[in-house]
Amino acid sequence: MDYQYPILIDWSTEETVDVIAFFECIEKAYEKGINRSRLMDAYRRFKEIVPSKAEEKKICNEFEEVSGYSSYRVVKKAKDSEDVLTIKM
């Protein structure tokens, strides 16, 4: 990993850690698969920190630009696959 996560300076340390944990879940979905409930828990926490759809899109697009991993596609797959235990891209 040779990139930085998109972070806003007005987030608390705990919020920053939780946003990074969400992006790490996205990475795991691409690299080896991740438990769907773990991913959705991380996404729900991310949405508490970033409730605005526009801000979510901006941050996730920044992450995709530097990593090549689409948060949108991972979360969409998880939402569409309620009966699946592991999300793998």
Describe the structure.
With 89 residues, the protein is mainly alpha-helical. It is built from 4 helices and 2 strands. It is globular, with a radius of gyration of 12 Å. The mean pLDDT is 95.
Chain-wise SSE layout:
Blueprint: H1 13-31, E1 34-35, H2 36-49, H3 53-67, H4 71-80, E2 86-87
Helix pairs in contact: 1-2
Number of helices: 4
Oligomeric composition of the shown chains: single chain
Strand order of the largest sheet: 1-2
> Which structural class is indicated by helix and strand composition?
mainly alpha
Strand % is under 5%
Low-confidence runs of at least 5 consecutive residues: none
* Overall helicity: 55-70%
Biggest pleated-sheet summary: 2 strands, antiparallel
Q: What's the short story on this structure?
A:
The chain is mainly alpha-helical and 89 residues long. Helix content is 65%, strand content 4%. It is globular and about 35 Å long.
Which key phrases capture this entry?
mainly alpha, 4 helices, 89 residues, globular, two-stranded antiparallel ribbon, 65% helix
